[in-house]
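Input structure tokens:
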């Protein structure tokens, strides 16, 4: 029954998406596919989970409808104001500031950001090698390093500098959409993220980078595809190769992290069919647990409802962590509380965190607001081609993509990279315009001589 209802919801979303967005990849489909996918995986019952209560399923469905309502609200409001809701179907002719010089300044800026990201990653590796003796010993002690990071005993040096790499991932995706092919400069920020996350023995950062690149690329590509000023010959083959390269790089990195961490694959509640796959590379009990258990944990959370947090602590964790350094507030918990389902795991979707942060009002208002604001910035970008609107849309879209896991704004990388881009991009645009004018003057001078 769960699978049947999930497929019915997915089909309904396809129909709604066809009339609203006219393109397949957008925040409506990202939200729907991720939540439906987890529900179907849970319904396979390859692990004998605790039952998800009817109350939890109703909450999940109602919050999903709130998210959809937020999207529809923007479309209805625009229609009442007689604005065009089918922007992707009509061509435009707009010059984009960042590409007035064919992206030369943007390319240089991505190189600078990548260099900062690599410095942060290599510094972290240097600290680990100094502590354990060699790269081999670091890899052999990966599980210890992971445990130390989770317990807060060790986080590595320069804890916030690495977050700049995620700004580079965004810009690399934007640059790739413009060039219609994958270039080295676009891949470098992703490699910097991978190196840093491997040092931390983590996977969330790699997934963050992959989703940021993937979602930003398609949003930008949809927009640039209708812009006459940027249209060129079709490079579908190169774009497919680009997409597959980023996917392969991300998957192999996650597999490598899993391998060095030495994750436990023996769970008493695992079925025989899944237990046979525990030596597999891509499908193992721990991976199935990672991609099917979150709604079960959410159900356990609603059953107990015993978490006490400060107002907005999960959603604005980076801010609370900063304030705690000055003793303004107590130091917040970095990792969510775990629940037994019947194994210990702590990811319970973003619904657990916004409910703990804001109560039942927030539980329904936040999904509505995210649907509304993400759609609003989507339209603003398509209307103006202002890259700051694309930044805002992309980062809220990441909240949507991670909603099945956590509220991603709790990660410092989300808030710092967002603020970094919003602050620096106006200056990069001015430099791009200046460089374009310089190139034009030089060309005119050469022509006259």
């Amino acid at each position: 029954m769960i699978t049947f209802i999930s497929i019915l919801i997915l089909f309904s979303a396809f129909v709604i998406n066809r009339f609203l967005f006219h393109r397949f990849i957008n925040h409506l489909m990202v939200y729907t596919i991720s939540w439906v996918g987890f529900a179907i995986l849970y319904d396979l019952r390859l692990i004998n989970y605790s039952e998800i209560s009817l109350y939890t399923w109703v909450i999940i469905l109602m919050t999903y409808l709130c998210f959809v309502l937020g999207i529809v609200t923007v479309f209805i409001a625009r229609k009442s104001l007689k604005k065009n809701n089918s922007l992707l179907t009509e061509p435009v002719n707009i010059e984009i500031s960042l590409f007035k010089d064919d992206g030369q300044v943007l390319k240089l800026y991505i190189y600078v950001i990548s260099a900062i990201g690599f410095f942060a990653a290599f510094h972290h590796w240097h600290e680990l090698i100094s502590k354990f003796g060699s790269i081999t010993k670091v890899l052999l002690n990966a599980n210890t390093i992971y445990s130390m990071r989770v317990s807060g005993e060790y986080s590595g040096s320069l804890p916030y500098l690495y977050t700049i790499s995620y700004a580079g991932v965004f810009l690399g995706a934007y640059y790739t959409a413009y060039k219609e092919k994958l270039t080295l400069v676009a891949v470098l920020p992703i490699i910097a993220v991978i190196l840093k996350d491997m040092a931390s023995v983590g996977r969330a950062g790699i997934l963050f980078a992959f989703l940021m690149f993937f979602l930003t690329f398609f949003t930008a590509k949809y927009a640039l595809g209708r812009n006459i000023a940027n249209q060129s010959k079709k490079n579908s083959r190169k774009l497919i190769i680009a997409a597959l390269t980023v996917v392969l790089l991300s998957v192999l990195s996650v597999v490598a992290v899993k391998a060095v961490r030495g994750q436990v694959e023996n769970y008493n509640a695992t079925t025989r069919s899944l237990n046979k796959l525990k030596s597999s590379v891509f499908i193992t009990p721990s991976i199935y647990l990672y991609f099917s258990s979150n709604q079960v944990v959410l159900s356990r959370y609603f059953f107990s409802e015993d978490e006490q947090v400060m107002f907005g602590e999960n959603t604005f964790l980076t801010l609370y962590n900063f304030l705690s350094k000055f003793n303004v507030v107590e130091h917040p918990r970095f990792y969510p509380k775990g629940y037994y389902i019947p194994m210990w795991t702590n990811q319970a979707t973003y619904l657990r965190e916004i409910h703990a942060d804001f109560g039942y009002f927030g539980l329904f208002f936040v999904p509505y607001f995210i649907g509304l604001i993400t759609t609003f910035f989507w339209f603003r970008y398509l209307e103006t081609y202002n890259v700051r609107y694309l930044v805002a849309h992309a980062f809220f879209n990441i909240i949507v993509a991670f909603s099945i896991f956590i509220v991603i704004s709790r990660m410092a990388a989300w808030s710092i990279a967002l603020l970094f881009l919003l602050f620096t991009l106006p200056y990069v645009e001015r430099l791009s315009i200046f460089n374009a004018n310089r190139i034009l003057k030089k060309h005119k001078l050469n022509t006259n001589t």
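Strands lie at 339-340, 344-345. The chain has 17 helices and two strands.
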